[in-house]
Amino acid sequence: MSIAGELLTKDWWAEGDTPVHNDSRVTFFVDGRMTMLSMCLHYLKARHYIYLANWGVTPEIELVRGSDHRAGPDGSPEQEKLIAELRSYGVQEPEIAFWCSQPLSLKNVLAYAVGKGVEVKVLIWDNPELLGNNNPKEAHKILTQAGITCLLDDSALALKHPAESLHQKISIVDGTHAFVGGVDPLIEQKGEFDRWDTQKHLFSSPLRRTHEGTSPHPWHDAHALIEGPAAGDVELNFRQRWNDVVNKKELDAELIVLEYTIAPPVETNSVVQIARTIPRETYTFAPAEGIQGIAQLYAKAFGNAQHFIYLENQYFWIRAFGGLDVAFLGFDNPEMETNAQKIGEALRHGATMAIVLPDHPNVGRAFTDAGLARLKQEAPEAAVEGRLQAFCLATSETQQDGVHYRPIYVHAKVAVIDDVWATVGSANLNNRGMRDDAEMNVAVLNPGLVRGLRLMLWAEHLALYDESDLFDVARFLGRQQQNAEDSARGERIWQQVQETLGDPFAGLRMMVERARDNLQRYKAKQPLVGQLLPYLTAEEATQQGLNFREAHGWIEEE
Length: 558
Fold this sequence. Notes:
Layout: H1 5-8, E1 20-21, E2 25-30, H2 32-45, E3 49-54, H3 77-88, H4 93-101, H5 106-115, E4 119-125, H6 136-145, E5 149-153, E6 170-173, E7 177-181, E8 187-188, E9 193-194, E10 219-220, E11 222-227, H7 231-248, E12 271-278, E13 291-292, H8 293-304, E14 308-312, H9 334-348, E15 352-356, H10 365-378, H11 380-384, E16 388-399, E17 402-407, E18 409-410, E19 414-417, E20 421-425, H12 431-436, E21 439-445, H13 447-462, H14 467-477, H15 484-501, H16 504-523, E22 532-534, H17 538-543
Parallel strand pairs: 3-4, 4-5, 10-18, 14-15, 15-16
Antiparallel strand pairs: 1-12, 2-11, 3-6, 6-7, 7-11, 8-9, 12-13, 12-21, 14-19, 16-17, 16-22, 19-20, 20-21
């Protein structure tokens, strides 16, 4: 599908940092299983170099699990089919043998690449112990012992605000492919927050276990694969950050990352831009005021919205969180103030907005509640007419003593505007994502691809299709390598999803009805159908007679 000329006349793009591409391709992945499987495939196929920069890393995290790793005994039809699929993805025989015989942990996969002569470098935020539940120094030790070159980036310590972070989640393979999004290869809080999860977001799963042997909270996320010259913009960002750390710490000059030839163009119908947030006083390559490319993207996209805004995010803070979960004590946040005003203007002109949020964010729930209240103030008629909807996600399981519920942690950072433009990345809708953390997003103008992202998300939340169906759809829409059978299946499922959810307003009505029905099911102690529930503010949850707790929301059982 080519992009209509009228869409190209609108200004969607950030200025002053990275170029806009008409020669690059994007594939969207929903949740950790799909994302990490693709990462593992590309890491094993690497011939020259692999670069990673992450908020956090767990070297032992298994990137590929269950039947994706071993489908059956050697020689079984199931295992032979898996091997045939690996071959269709371009995986060579030595890597297939490795795949079938070794745990596919991040450490093992990267060490295998090093053993083949591939240059591997990993940059991890040196997270102060008081601010996080992961251990960057231990990760550095484990990766280094495995022969992987790893640096800890303490550049955020120069910031005025001690809670800010180096939040990018990126990797680059051979300069031709790059991953950008919300998924870190990480398990934190003693296994409680494992980024690997399936689109079913099961209440419990033997493939996800905490240190105590229980199942961690389900985790919903989104990521993207970039092919072509735009991958070079992700690599430039890594090179700038890595070399800045090397120079600042006066490390061996041999550690410097060199500039490689930009990847050749690929066939595409997309217009693509990589955008980033770089805080001031953090890196020498950035201007004094920092870089706010992602804030520019959001402001322009909200300003362009005519019919429909769909968001998934961990937060929606108009004011900046300063450590106390009391919204009126927050600091001014001009970028989010602009976003609220532009969303309000779109709503007043008749647009519809829907947002998916976590019921139990790690911090700042009162700030999100205040952000939603602000939108209702901006456009009260939209709230009355049902054109402003907020959801959260949950899962349920029937056990011997009845039905139990768990919230699904929404970590995805997704925006879809009018089914023509979308962004996926690491930036939250708050002061940190817009200005105060190091972030990276990819933005795409392509109606078919963008609609596909929305439909994959909605089909998951409504539980309309099997996970393997949605994986084939993702690869079909992104023009990824597939065997003929999977490609045909992906196209067939794509047509079915379009028939069911293609009209965003009809699809939203389905979501509203499902969320309301699930709220009644929750109150009646019945299993949920799909994942959707209404997002209830503290006041609304209390009015509904639900057990709301500031740190846990209302879905979490005591």
